[in-house]
Every structure is written in structure tokens, then in C-alpha cells.
Amino acid sequence: MRQLILDTETTGLYPEKGHRIIEFAALEMIDRKLTGNYLQLYINPEREIDADATKIHGIKNEDVIDKPVFAELVEQIIEYIKDAELIIHNAKFDLSFMDYQFKLHDYQPTQNYVKNIIDTLNMARQKFPGGKNSLDALCDKFNIDRSKRDYHGALIDCALLADVYLALTREQISLLADEQNNINSSIDFKQIDTSKLNLKIIKPNAEELALHNEYLKVLDKESQGKSLWLKKSENS
Questions:
Q1: Which residues fall within 8 angstroms of residue 1, CB to CB, at 6 or more apart?
Q2: How far apart are CA 22 and CA 163, in angstroms?
Q3: pLDDT tens, 172-206?
Q4: Taking the CB of the first residue and of the last residue of the chain, which one, N or C, has fewer CB atoms within 10 A?
């Protein structure tokens, strides 16, 4: 699967109010490794950039006044993202701008051109419920160096997001690898004779069972209904 770590910078927050994309960036990843293939485009938004937006990404009006407009770049963007899996932090924001501007030029929504879209913000919220899950916060959580990030530029944010995505999914990949190894390996299990052992079985009382069940319910809530232990407990 060809994956693209994608980010955009914009003139403001709301495409329906006339705000537009001024930087598009995507890094290609194959087999969980960056290939060095990337696309970075600066775009003339044909309007002023909000001062508050410039404080975040550092892009000024004079930086993009001589750049191509979106209509000149839309086919290049679509060709680059075509049939890839997109990895975006807070995908709702970036896709709202891309879809809006695609529609303005009679193109289909982003999802019609790609295989899949992964939102790392949603992934982080599931993994760390109730915690701070901004890109900065996740970099700090996973000890990812962001010292070179003076502004929220799209390309540098893609590089940081690539590390965050790998960290978020490293445990999952490790478990899958272990499972595959177990399937492929031939293990000779020997049965242990316990007939001569004086093993004492201690059964939980009603209060302990109730506390255990409450704990399983908390786990089930945090995993959004994916707790196998609770389902097993209810069926037993």
C-alpha cells in the first residue's frame, strides 16, 4: 500500500467563507518507510492571508503572490494522491478545504481518488482518551524532536506526523508480527503432569467479582466497546 502523509496550510479556517489552501505537502511512505518522494506546492490563494493564520504557519501574502493558483495545480495534486492511502492529522479540516476547492473546479471529493483516509487525531483519541492529542502533544508523548519547527509549515508537519503515525501503530504492527510468527512456527508443547501437585484453587467472592466486572466496564468504555474480556465474562 502506497501511503501519503498529507498536510495543508490555509489563509484561515473556513473554506465556505472564502479561505483557501496556500501550501500543500505530502510525503510518500511504502512499507512503513519514507521513500524520499514528496510533493510540496505553494499556492496563490487569490485573497489576503489572515494575520492570525500567518502567526501559525509563517506564510505571508508576499510569499505566495507569485505562485500558481489552485486551478493550475489541481490535476497535479490529484495525480499524486491517486490510489494512495492518506494519513492526515485532523483530516476533517484538510479535507474540507481540498473537497471545497476540488468542487469549485468541477472535480470529485478527495475520497473518490484515494484508497483510504486515516485520521491520526481519531487514532490518538482512541489510544489516549481524555488526553491532549495535538501534533505537538503527540510529539512530546513519543519523544519526537520538534525543535526545528518554528512554524506549522505543511512539509515539516508531514515529517513529524510520519513519526507520530509510526509510533501510534508500532504496537499494532508488533502484535501482528508476533501472531504471524506464532502461526508459521512449529512449537512442541509438552503437557505438565499436575496430578501429584497440591494446587489450591481460590475462587473470588461476590464483592471481588463485582469489582472486577466494574473494571472491565471501564476498559470497555475506554476501548469504545472493544473489550474482549467483558464479552467473555458476560457469556460465561
A1: 30, 85, 115
A2: 24
A3: 555 454 555 555 555 565 666 767 777 777 888 88
A4: C
Task: Determine the Cα–Cα distance for residues 69 and 23; give it in Å rounded to an integer.
Answer: 11
Instruction: Please answer whether residues 164 and 120 qualify as being in contact, where contact means their C-beta atoms are separated by less than 8 angstroms.
Output: yes
CB atoms within 10 A of CB 56: 13
- Judged by DSSP in three states, 183 sits in helix
Backbone torsions φ then ψ of 160, nearest 5 degrees: -65, -40
Q: What residues pair up with 8 in beta bridges, in sequence order?
A: 24
Active-site annotation holder among 19, 57, 89, 152:
152
Cell for 83? Answer: 490510489
- At 69, list the grid cell: 493558483
pTM for this entry: 0.73
Find all residues with CB under 8 Å of 43, minimum gap 6, and list them. Answer: 20, 21, 22, 23, 24, 64, 67, 68, 69, 70, 73
- Give catalytic status of residue 152 as yes or no: yes
CA dihedral defined by 67, 71, 75, 81, rounded to 10 degrees?
Answer: 70
- DSSP for 95-151, written as a single string: HHHHHHHHHHTT---GGGTSSEEEEHHHHHHHHSTTS--SHHHHHHHTT---TT-SS
The whole-number pLDDT of residue 223 equals 67
Cell of 202: 481460590
- Using only the alpha carbons of the chain, give its radius of gyration: 24
In this structure, are strands 21-30 and 33-42 parallel, antiparallel, or unpaired? antiparallel
Compute the distance between CA of residue 124 and CA of residue 6 in angstroms, rounded to an integer.
17
- pLDDT digit string, tens, across residues 94-147: 999 999 999 999 999 999 999 999 999 999 999 999 999 999 999 999 999 988
